[in-house]
Amino acid sequence: EVQLVESGGNLVQAGGSLRLSCSASGFTFDDYTIGWFRQAPGKEREGVSCISSSDGSTYYADSVKGRFTISRDLAKNTVYLQMNNLKPEDTAVYYCNADDGYRSNYWGQGTQVTVSS
Fold it and tell me: Is 63 helix (H, G, I), strand (E, B) or coil?
Protein backbone atom coordinates (compact mmCIF):
# COMPACT_ATOMS: atom_id res chain seq x y z
CA GLU A 1 0.00 0.00 0.00
CA VAL A 2 1.37 3.40 -1.00
CA GLN A 3 1.54 5.87 1.84
CA LEU A 4 2.81 9.41 2.26
CA VAL A 5 2.52 10.64 5.81
CA GLU A 6 3.21 14.25 6.70
CA SER A 7 3.98 15.40 10.21
CA GLY A 8 5.41 18.39 12.01
CA GLY A 9 2.69 20.95 11.46
CA ASN A 10 1.87 23.16 14.40
CA LEU A 11 0.93 26.60 15.62
CA VAL A 12 3.94 28.92 15.74
CA GLN A 13 4.51 32.64 16.12
CA ALA A 14 5.76 34.75 13.24
CA GLY A 15 9.52 34.48 12.97
CA GLY A 16 9.51 30.96 14.33
CA SER A 17 10.53 27.68 12.71
CA LEU A 18 9.03 24.31 11.98
CA ARG A 19 10.31 21.17 10.31
CA LEU A 20 7.85 19.13 8.31
CA SER A 21 8.48 15.48 7.52
CA CYS A 22 7.10 13.34 4.72
CA SER A 23 7.57 9.63 5.27
CA ALA A 24 6.97 7.35 2.29
CA SER A 25 6.26 3.67 1.95
CA GLY A 26 4.89 1.26 -0.62
CA PHE A 27 6.89 2.50 -3.60
CA THR A 28 10.48 2.95 -4.73
CA PHE A 29 11.24 6.24 -3.07
CA ASP A 30 14.42 6.92 -5.02
CA ASP A 31 12.50 6.99 -8.32
CA TYR A 32 10.18 9.82 -7.30
CA THR A 33 10.49 13.57 -7.20
CA ILE A 34 9.08 14.67 -3.87
CA GLY A 35 7.36 17.99 -3.57
CA TRP A 36 5.72 20.10 -0.90
CA PHE A 37 2.55 21.96 -1.75
CA ARG A 38 0.32 24.11 0.40
CA GLN A 39 -3.24 25.29 0.36
CA ALA A 40 -4.54 28.20 2.36
CA PRO A 41 -8.27 28.69 2.99
CA GLY A 42 -10.00 30.03 -0.10
CA LYS A 43 -6.89 29.68 -2.24
CA GLU A 44 -5.62 27.20 -4.79
CA ARG A 45 -2.99 24.65 -3.91
CA GLU A 46 0.46 25.95 -4.77
CA GLY A 47 3.88 24.40 -5.10
CA VAL A 48 6.35 25.31 -2.39
CA SER A 49 9.43 23.20 -2.98
CA CYS A 50 10.56 19.95 -4.52
CA ILE A 51 13.62 17.74 -4.68
CA SER A 52 14.49 15.77 -7.78
CA SER A 53 14.73 12.02 -7.81
CA SER A 54 17.55 12.02 -10.34
CA ASP A 55 20.16 14.29 -8.80
CA GLY A 56 18.66 15.79 -5.66
CA SER A 57 18.37 19.22 -7.22
CA THR A 58 15.91 21.50 -5.50
CA TYR A 59 13.31 24.07 -6.42
CA TYR A 60 11.69 26.77 -4.31
CA ALA A 61 8.82 29.10 -4.89
CA ASP A 62 9.90 32.73 -4.78
CA SER A 63 7.78 33.30 -1.69
CA VAL A 64 9.85 30.87 0.39
CA LYS A 65 13.35 31.22 -1.08
CA GLY A 66 15.92 31.86 1.59
CA ARG A 67 13.56 30.74 4.35
CA PHE A 68 12.67 27.13 3.53
CA THR A 69 15.03 24.24 2.88
CA ILE A 70 14.06 20.87 1.46
CA SER A 71 16.17 17.78 2.08
CA ARG A 72 15.82 14.04 1.92
CA ASP A 73 17.07 10.98 3.74
CA LEU A 74 16.98 8.11 1.26
CA ALA A 75 17.76 5.57 3.97
CA LYS A 76 14.62 6.62 5.84
CA ASN A 77 12.44 7.28 2.77
CA THR A 78 11.75 10.68 4.22
CA VAL A 79 11.78 14.23 2.90
CA TYR A 80 11.97 17.22 5.19
CA LEU A 81 10.96 20.83 4.82
CA GLN A 82 12.75 23.13 7.23
CA MET A 83 10.80 26.35 7.50
CA ASN A 84 12.44 29.34 9.13
CA ASN A 85 11.33 32.91 9.67
CA LEU A 86 7.72 31.88 9.22
CA LYS A 87 5.18 34.51 8.27
CA PRO A 88 1.41 34.59 8.75
CA GLU A 89 1.02 34.16 4.99
CA ASP A 90 2.68 30.76 5.31
CA THR A 91 -0.41 29.52 7.12
CA ALA A 92 -1.84 26.61 5.15
CA VAL A 93 -2.27 22.88 4.99
CA TYR A 94 0.99 21.48 3.69
CA TYR A 95 0.88 18.41 1.47
CA CYS A 96 3.57 16.04 0.35
CA ASN A 97 3.51 14.76 -3.23
CA ALA A 98 5.46 12.00 -4.97
CA ASP A 99 5.70 11.90 -8.76
CA ASP A 100 7.67 9.55 -10.97
CA GLY A 101 7.30 11.70 -14.08
CA TYR A 102 5.24 9.06 -15.87
CA ARG A 103 1.95 7.83 -14.50
CA SER A 104 2.34 7.59 -10.76
CA ASN A 105 1.46 10.49 -8.52
CA TYR A 106 0.66 10.25 -4.84
CA TRP A 107 -0.51 12.69 -2.17
CA GLY A 108 -0.36 12.69 1.59
CA GLN A 109 -3.20 13.74 3.83
CA GLY A 110 -1.66 17.08 4.78
CA THR A 111 -0.45 18.76 7.95
CA GLN A 112 -1.66 22.10 9.26
CA VAL A 113 0.77 24.96 9.71
CA THR A 114 -0.56 28.05 11.44
CA VAL A 115 1.58 31.14 11.91
CA SER A 116 0.27 33.77 14.28
CA SER A 117 1.22 37.42 13.98
Answer: coil
